[in-house]
Structure formats: C-alpha cells, structure tokens
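FORM 12-B: Structure-to-Sequence Request
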C-alpha cells in the first residue's frame, strides 16, 4: 500500500464480509499488525487455556463471547505494543460496550483510531461465502470451494496442510451469527459515523478489488 494514512484501523462488517482476508493483505503490504479476536479465541481454545474454555460454548452457538473477556484480551495485546503501534482490528469491537472500551484504551495511550472501514456485502453472498469457506489447519490460508478452490481438494496449495471448515461456518450457526451481527454489531456503524471515522466500502467482487477500494479511501481518493 502507499503511504500509510493513519495507524489504527477497524474493519467492521458482517461475518463473511472479507475482514480477515483484507486484514491479512493489509498486514502483508503495510507491516501493520492484524489483530483478530476470533483468531485469538480459536488459539485459546486450541491451547486449552481458561479463556478458551470459557469462550468455546459461546462460539459454538454463534453467540458473542462476554465483553469483559474480549476487552481483557485486547488490553493485554495493547500492553505488549510499542508507543505508536499500528493495528488492523478484525472482528473487534463487536458491541457498543467494546467500542467504548477501545476508545478509552486508545485515549489513555494517546493513540487515536484513524478509520473504520464498514464493509458491506449482500446477505445471500455472505451465506455462500461462509458455507464454502475452508481454512488451512497449518498455515491459516483461506480458500473457497467454489470461488477460490485449492488445486487438490482438501489440501492447502501453500503448505499442503489439511483444509478444514470452521465449526461455526455450518448453516444453522451462520444464521445465528448473522442475527447477532444485526442486533449487537450493526449499531457500531452509527457510533463511528457520529465520530467522523466511518468509511463505507463495497465488499463485493474479488479481494483485490475490495483492497483497491480500501486503499482509495485510506489515501483520500474517493
Ligand atoms: P470471527 O472469527 O471474527 O468470525 O469470530 C468467531 C467467533 O468468535 C464469533 O462468532 C464470536 O463467538 C467470537 N468473537 C470474536 N470476536 C468477538 C468479539 N469482539 N466479541 C465477542 N465475541 C467475539
């Protein structure tokens, strides 16, 4: 990406909007840190930590993990960062309470939030994207059975690891996650719009097209 405009970016949008894909691309191109609370929670579950044990049942049902747990996780992550850290937040905040907490955490460190990218994708596309999504269990590369298939079914092109489906990417859970998004997370658009931070991004098309739209916003060309 071109000269970085701002150092703290939140990616907002429903599950399946492409937040993780975009955050990974931005991290590769800018060196900013990608912070995904979903990834942190899945790692906590895999390691069997107390946080993972508490989070597991909520995630399996497609519900949000309690705010306090997620906020503490982000506090820890920020405490380990330098004085002027660059972050792409993916999947955090997801409630107004989390957005309030983030605002306070960043204000205390005098590091403002620069942009909130609100990635919009039609509901039907979201369901199709999520139900076909496959992730490499070893390196985390993402594929899609129809839109971005691996060369050999079930095998990662990059490292030959096994491709797996996330437990919460099954149809019933997808529906629950979308309801939670509408109720708890959608109001964040108004929260950030009122602060002048919200940038609306069309999330349809290829990952490269969406990244280009984001880049245009970040560089003020829109
Ligand atoms: P994601 O990988 O962002 O789709 O998140 C997967 C699941 O992790 C969500 O459905 C929630 O159960 C949980 N989760 C991730 N981030 C948060 C958050 N900021 N607040 C509450 N729960 C979260």
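FORM 12-B RESPONSE
SEQUENCE OUT:
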């Amino acid at each position: 990406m071109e000269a970085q405009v701002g150092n703290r970016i939140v990616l907002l949008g429903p599950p399946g909007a492409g937040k993780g894909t975009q955050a990974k691309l931005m991290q590769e191109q800018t060196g900013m840190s990608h912070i995904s609370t979903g990834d942190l929670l899945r790692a906590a579950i895999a390691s069997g930590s107390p946080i993972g044990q508490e989070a597991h049942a909520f995630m399996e049902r497609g519900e949000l993990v309690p705010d306090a747990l997620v906020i503490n996780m982000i506090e820890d992550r920020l405490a380990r960062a330098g004085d002027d850290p660059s972050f792409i937040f993916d999947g955090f905040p997801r409630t107004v309470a989390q957005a309030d907490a983030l605002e306070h955490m960043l204000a205390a460190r005098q590091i403002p939030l620069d942009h909130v990218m609100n990635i919009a994708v039609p509901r039907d596309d979201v369901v199709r994207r999520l139900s076909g999504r496959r992730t490499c269990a070893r390196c985390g590369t993402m594929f899609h059975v129809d839109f971005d298939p691996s060369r050999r079914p079930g095998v990662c092109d990059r490292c030959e690891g096994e491709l797996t489906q996330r437990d919460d990417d099954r149809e019933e859970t997808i529906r629950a996650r979308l309801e939670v998004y509408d109720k708890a997370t959608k109001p964040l658009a108004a929260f950030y719009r009122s602060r002048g931070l919200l940038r609306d991004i069309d999330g349809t098309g290829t990952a490269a097209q969406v990244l280009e739209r984001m880049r245009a916003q970040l560089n003020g060309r829109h």
